[in-house]
Amino acid sequence: MGRTYFVEETIGQYLSDLSTKLKPYVTGLLIGQCSPQRDYVVRAVRTPPKEEEKEDNISPSKLASIDEEWITTHASQVSRMLPGGLLVLGVFIIATPELSKDSQNALRKLIFSVEKSLTKRRLWKPAEEEVSDRAALQICSATKKVVCRTYDVQDPKSSAKPADWKYQSALSASWLALSCTVNVNIHIPLLATSPNHDLEKNTKNGLNRWSKQIEDSVFLINGQVKDDDTELLEGQKKLRGNPQSSTQFFDVKVLTQLSRSSSHRSTATVQVCSGSINLKGAVKCRAYVHNNKPRVKEAVQALKRDIINTLSDRCEILFEDLIINEGPHKKNFQREYHVLPQRLFVPVAGSSVMLSDYKFGDEAAGEIQERFVEMLDQSVQAEDIHIAEEMNT
């Protein structure tokens, strides 16, 4: 038996519109959530056109000209805009009948390169029982025939397995949301022996150690410690009224001082340092889970990953910004303060799930709106941009 993908109904219309507009082929990403029983697809997003394609309004005619690097870069950018629980679940291609027979090979190649690029950036390891199948969706632009297959990204020799693609209305209208605020105070020593004081590398190493602390922390859901295998909704009052408009929120406290694994003995080391990095502030984190009897374990895992991702993504964005604005050769070791970008959330029409992004203090709403159109093919009203955090250094 292959996997089943339950897909937000509006995606069908979106893919159909793309197939009439863009010839001879168009690629894009599938965004959603895996669970042990079934997978959910809540968004499909076409690959943004490159500058030269925008100007000449043309798209390449052969599948051999698919730009793998462009698509994987898009996937990395999009993954930063996904809250906990959502991930890039696969890749789609809509192609003319002449190109269909080569489409599957192109999709297979893309799935593995996208996954490789996303895995490289992660500071967490997938759990053993985690779903490692990713979807390859192929649509014929002439007949509109849909073929969905999956590949196991943990196995480079994996061959295609058939999968079901089922549309469902209001699929994510009443998903559950977990939110927490985490106070961050991370001290990262810069070793005197490390070459050129590679800030980015040192920061990543420091965040790596911190992420293990988050993984081992105790999570209180609505003030209670819950067993991993209990249902998240156990003991909750059923929401009355219109399920379309109500998101059930769980308030989570993260106790970083309490560790679940008592086997870790901490050992002190003495190191010669030439400086240090301090990361301080409060970050707002959020995760979404499907409402088909989710377990506490799934929900907590989604929130842990959001906490870890949001900090490492911000540091990455800051370093990119510094390189663009100051050049890579700035070697000034006085005390410097940089403000990490703030987090914001934007609603998705017909869904209880919100997407995320980051803004620097001087960025205008227009720039954020442009980014949502380019990265997620979604237009956003300025009044729908919810800034989640205070400005703090």
UniProtKB/TrEMBL annotation:
<dbReference type="InterPro" id="IPR029454">
    <property type="entry name" value="ODR-4-like"/>
</dbReference>
<comment type="similarity">
    <text>Belongs to the ODR-4 family.</text>
</comment>
<dbReference type="Pfam" id="PF14778">
    <property type="entry name" value="ODR4-like"/>
</dbReference>
<keyword id="KW-0812">Transmembrane</keyword>
<dbReference type="GO" id="GO:0012505">
    <property type="term" value="C:endomembrane system"/>
</dbReference>
<dbReference type="GO" id="GO:0008104">
    <property type="term" value="P:intracellular protein localization"/>
</dbReference>
<protein>
    <recommendedName>
        <fullName>Protein odr-4 homolog</fullName>
    </recommendedName>
</protein>
<dbReference type="GO" id="GO:0016020">
    <property type="term" value="C:membrane"/>
</dbReference>
<keyword id="KW-0472">Membrane</keyword>
<comment type="function">
    <text>May play a role in the trafficking of a subset of G-protein coupled receptors.</text>
</comment>
<keyword id="KW-1133">Transmembrane helix</keyword>
